[in-house]
Amino acid sequence: MGLIVQKFEESLISDTIETKNLVDKVKSAYIAGNSVVVVAAVQGNYMEELVNKANRENPSRSKRELDVLISAYGQIIASLTTMAIESSGIPAISLTGYQAGIISDSNYSNARIKSIDNERIFRELDRKNVVVIAASQAWNKFEDITTFGKGGDDTTAVAVAASLQADICEFYTDLDGVYTADPKIVSSAVKLKDISYDELLELSSLGANILHNRAVELAKKYNVNLVIKSRSKNIDGTIVKEVGSVEKLMVRGVTRDNEIARIAVMGIEDKPGMAFKLFSALAKENINVDLIIQSIGRDGTEDISFTVGKSNLEGTLEVINKNMALLNPREVQHSDKYSKVSIVGAGMVNNPGIAAKMFEALYEAGINIHMITTSETKISVLVDVQDSEMAVNVIHEKFNLNA
Amino acid sequence: MGLIVQKFEESLISDTIETKNLVDKVKSAYIAGNSVVVVAAVQGNYMEELVNKANRENPSRSKRELDVLISAYGQIIASLTTMAIESSGIPAISLTGYQAGIISDSNYSNARIKSIDNERIFRELDRKNVVVIAASQAWNKFEDITTFGKGGDDTTAVAVAASLQADICEFYTDLDGVYTADPKIVSSAVKLKDISYDELLELSSLGANILHNRAVELAKKYNVNLVIKSRSKNIDGTIVKEVGSVEKLMVRGVTRDNEIARIAVMGIEDKPGMAFKLFSALAKENINVDLIIQSIGRDGTEDISFTVGKSNLEGTLEVINKNMALLNPREVQHSDKYSKVSIVGAGMVNNPGIAAKMFEALYEAGINIHMITTSETKISVLVDVQDSEMAVNVIHEKFNLNA
Questions:
Q1: Average predicted confidence (pLDDT) for chain B
Q2: CB B374 within 8 A of CB B251
Q3: Closest Cα of chain A to B190: distance in Å?
Q4: Is some CB atom of chain B closer than 8 A to the CB atom of A51?
Q5: CA distance A76 to A31
Q6: How far is B80 from chain A (nearest CA, A)?
Q7: Which of A206-210, A229-233, B105-109 has the lowest mean pLDDT?
Q8: How many angstroms away from the CA of A93 is the closest CA of chain B?
Q9: Residue A171: which of A113, A141, A208, A215 has the closest Cα?
Q10: Structural domains of chain A, ranges and CATH numbers in brackets
Q11: Dihedral sign (CA A11, A15, A21, A22)
């Protein structure tokens, strides 16, 4: 018996089987005597259609109103979820962000949670209700509705779990846990029993779409135990918790990300601040830069190469164009024919031989490396996209991850 | 310059022309220097679909959750309306029922407004915002969402107008005002310049779908000036205000209602309380009874005939069946082949010749009258449905309403 927060990924509007899966999970947890809080993801074609309509009709509509629209959809999902739970004979009640006491800043469409006054949630749990909280919405100090943007659904679940000091925060997903590599690419990939927050953060940021990083960071900060489980099958998932028990494997997983583009700004003058100016201009447009190589070019000039998400390629080129006078490069190249292949593991930082072993695996397979970047918990390399599947497989084998 | 509440009937989700009409009306009122409050009706196929889905999946789902669902749709309409207004360059802001300070009782799906704390509305108007209020929703004392049920959209507009002491509450509808008869039936029907609350109440309850009676009653109570106008054409509508200036015509309009059914419970014992028991059983099921005739039947028994809305026919027969032992009638007949034709006018009460004139018109046309009922402001007769169009026309002519 304890307090469980359950977050579900699926859309309940159209899918009866997913609704049944959700109700089954909630019911078992409730009948076992737990207090259950449910967060159902805000998604669905209808909302996209509405948001597109809003954007089409008025591209300059205020973000405040877009949040009113998006949050209404979250409210619909929450009420339908609640009705589905009620229909199984379990008492349930839906709460909007405000009713759940979730207060955020006023950064519409991308708000951050400031506090949760959990009095109402606890009151409803005391009344033996399953509490269904509308995902990704809050109120700000003006008593206006905000939404959380990307990762808002996951973040809601973790924030509520932290506030309630829940025993566990369960994520029911398409996946049944975190694997050493994508089983679609590596047939011998193995599901991890547990993983640290940092490792999961790296995996998520590397394109393994598990939990949103905002949520994992929050879980790490408040030490919320997470578990990633299958929404359809009744099997153990992967537990996410603080490092310590999970140190025995140095490399925990291999992943690849094809959704990247590489830009090379070549032949810029070698004087201080050039890279800074370029990257701060990109940061202003909210473009995240990943791998960066700065190298000496011809005739004493500099070349700067970096990667961005594929969807940011156009925006990046625009920023460079705007700053042409400043950068004055000889040439700007770009390509999206690359893939980023990474190994992740909290234990890597103390094992300098890891990188060499990874490069060796690629060398043996005849795979060319274009760029390299390393951090405490990951090593990433840029390879040609057609080499990426093989790269993941040979690295997975080299590190004996299927053991 | 003044304070105007504008209520719009159309659905904004799918119709661009209706959106343009709405924005045009709001913009002209705003540019003329008025403070403008907008109430956009909650309607649309998508919501019906959702509610049907909810009912299908869980017929016993709590009404509280249904209200969460319905109110979310109102929020969507309000935000889209606001964005549309913003797109014309007019500052606008949407408010949910709670944000607008609307507090109701806890009768979910059929809540009544208890009070409006209009501080937020006035604050936004002071900031020169057009304030768009989500229709038909409020909060109760538990900080839960309620909705108002039938007529809730009209009622929201009138209640807000009363609270703000608006100069006028404009209803933009399919109609361009109130006519002496349905122009589709009577080609010479004339639009009324003004009409009293009571006359409008009678017309609405007689099937002329103009404003919901809840809203008109509220307007009468708080003396809110209403005007019914065309949503597409730019012409004068019909003003609804307290009787006085509108007394010169005795009969104001003729209307018919085909959506009725007649039930005859024949040969019940002639003892006190039989009619009371029958009608109180119907009232318990929320079935409104309209025309009633109680008459002596054969062998000292009684016959009770009455009309109900066509949609209530089945429910009415069920109630009678449940009370068979009590009523013990010889026979129960029912038919929906009737039409109710009525004349309405606040001046009628002091003119006893009116009824005779109406019956004369029907007699001259050879139309048979099955039942009659009168009130201070209307006279209704039941005729065969195939006679109803002619009945409306001959009465309209008899009273010179096209004058």
A1: 88
A2: no
A3: 39
A4: no
A5: 26
A6: 7
A7: A206-210
A8: 7
A9: A215
A10: 3-173 (3.40.1160.10)
A11: positive
A contact residues 18-47, partner B, Cβ 8 Å cutoff: 19, 46
**Does the beta carbon of B96 lie under 8 angstroms from any beta carbon of chain A?**
yes
Looking at residue A181, the DSSP 8-state letter turns out to be: S
Query: Which among A58, A86, A96 has the least Cβ separation from residue B61?
Result: A86
What ipTM was reported for this prediction? Answer: 0.77
pTM, whole model, 2 decimals? 0.80
Which residues lie across from B305 on neighbouring strands? B264, B293
- Residue type for A197, please? Y
Q: Chain A partners of B50 at a C-beta cutoff of 8 Å?
A: 13, 76, 80
In DSSP notation, A223-267 reads: T--EEEEESSS-S--EEEE-TTTT-S-S--EEEEE-SEEEEEEEE
Interface of A with B in 118-137 (CB under 8 A): 120
Fill in the DSSP letter of residue B368. Answer: P
Token readout for B300 is 């000292």
Window 60-89 of A, Cβ < 8 Å to B? 60-62, 64-66, 68-69, 71-73, 75-76, 78-80, 82-84, 86-87
Rounded distance between C-alpha atoms, residue A218 and residue A207, angstroms: 19
Mind listing the pLDDT tens digit for each residue in B276-316? 888 888 888 888 888 887 777 777 788 888 999 898 999 99
Closest CA to B223 of B237, B243, B209: B243
Vertex A188: Cα angle to A182 and A189 (nearest 5): 35
Residue A1's Cβ-count burial label (10 Å; 0-12, 13-18, 19+) is: exposed
- CA–CA distance, B387 with B381 (Å, rounded to integer): 12
Contact yes or no for A5/A168 (Cβ under 8 A): yes
Q: Which residues of A touch B79 (CB under 8 A)?
A: 54, 65-66, 68-69, 72
CA separation for the pair B72, B78 (Å, rounded): 10
> Which of A76, A77, A124, A136 to mutate: most B Cβ within 10 Å?
A76
Contacts of B191 (CB under 8 A, 6+ apart): B176, B177, B178, B179, B180, B238
Shortest Cα–Cα distance, B393 to chain A (Å): 46
Q: CB-CB: which of A19, A65, A79 is closest to B79? A: A65
- What's the pLDDT at B45? 64
- Distance in Å, alpha carbon of A4 to nearest chain B alpha carbon: 22
Query: A327 CB contacts (<8 Å, ≥6 apart)?
Result: A265, A268, A274, A277, A278, A320
Q: Quick one: pLDDT at residue B279?
A: 87
